[in-house]
Amino acid sequence: MSLSESELLPGEHVLVSKHANAVVGIVQAGRGSLGSAGMTGTEAVGGQLYLTDLRLIFRAHRVNRLRGGFTVPLSSITQVRDTSSGLRRQVEIVTPLERFTFVVWGVAMLIARIEALRSAEAAEPEIPLCYKCGKPLDPGDPRFNLPWPDPVADMTDEERDEHVRFSSDAVVATDNIGGFVRALLPVPLTDARTATIGVWISVETDVYMHVNKVGRGELDYTRLQFEGRLANSLEPWGQRILGAPVSAGLSVDATRLQMPHVLGSPAPEISAVLNGRWRAEDVLTGDMRWALNYDPAAPPTPHHH
Predict the structure, then answer these.
(1) Do residue 108 and residue 224 come from a single domain?
(2) 111 plus 158 within the same structural domain
(3) Which terminus of the chain is less hemmed in, N or C, by CB atoms within 10 Å?
(4) Considering the domain boundaries, does residue 281 fall inside one?
(5) Mind giving me the DSSP string for 47-90?
């Protein structure tokens, strides 16, 4: 299976082509089409992984239950990790909005090629491209997803392989420190924008099961309300907000199942985050610095897929 010229962008060249399995979430992928990781269960979809000078492109084999494919612009990648375990060779691709896992041989060489391409354009934090439509993300509506809860991020690769039983963009389950659920934390900025950060909430087992039932459609989406503790530290608040109690759920105007939002907290630090105004340069640090490239006069480029 090879890419046709019509599938490539002008001036784009294929550098590497490998047989690979893409690990996708069964719920989100739905019936017969590839999608992002869902809230429960995964499936390995066989296909071909291409590395070009601009993108990673995955195309599923026609014999799979799930067909089609997806692309990941290199400019949207924030981290590339070797997550191999035992004889299973796999690589994890992290973007501000999603994580992608591929089971593939030659992981070290593939990572080296990706990192070399990323380094060539890493001098300045450019605005990443949306992994779904390939258009630049909108600095006027900056959105980010933290890849892991802090306690999981602090694990070694070996510990993560041992203890993480399931992970998607919505939930993480471990056998030693419990479960975590994604929620969106809105942070008002002094320049009138709101930075929306996908953080992780540590929850009790019964809450984790409740969230999964909503995700599977066993409970109505209006039941997506829960409490837990913030499992990420963020600048400029640091460790002061880590472990703070929070309540999360759908906003009152939600009309369908969406990602839950952090709605409130008895902790004054979290209340200040939600209700104050914060300087963009203090909040948008690290992988979020691209959103500092903001022109209020520029037309919006919304990405609410």
Answers:
(1) no
(2) no
(3) C
(4) yes
(5) EEEEEESSEEEEEE-TTSSSB-EEEEEGGG--EEEE--BTTB-E
CA distance 201 to 247: 9
**Alpha-carbon span 37 to 41, nearest angstrom:** 9
Q: Is residue 298 part of a domain?
A: no
Range picked from 5-14, 129-138, 172-181 for highest mean pLDDT: 172-181
Same domain, yes or no, for 288 and 152? yes
Nearest of 198, 213, 201, 169 to residue 265 by alpha carbon: 201
166 and 234 fall within a common domain: yes
Residues 202 and 279 in one domain: yes
> Mean pLDDT over all residues of the chain?
85
Q: Where are the alpha helices (DSSP H) in the chain?
A: 26-29, 107-120, 150-153, 157-163, 205-215, 268-275, 280-283
Domain count for the chain, please give it. 2
Judge whether residue 38 has pLDDT over 60.
no
Residue range of the domain that includes 82: 5-120
pLDDT of res. 255? 65
pTM, two decimals, is 0.62
Rounded average pLDDT over 285-289: 84
Structure tokens of 129? Answer: 């491209």
Domain annotation covers residue 303? no
Q: Are 166 and 172 a contacting pair, CB within 8 Å? A: yes
What would the two tokens of residue 93 be?
């691709």
Position 173 scores a pLDDT of: 96
Domain annotation covers residue 134 = no
Contact 265, 271 (CB under 8 A): yes
Same domain membership, residue 225 and residue 173: yes
Instruction: Tell me: pLDDT of 37 over 80.
Output: no
Q: Which two tokens stand for residue 107?
A: 């992981």
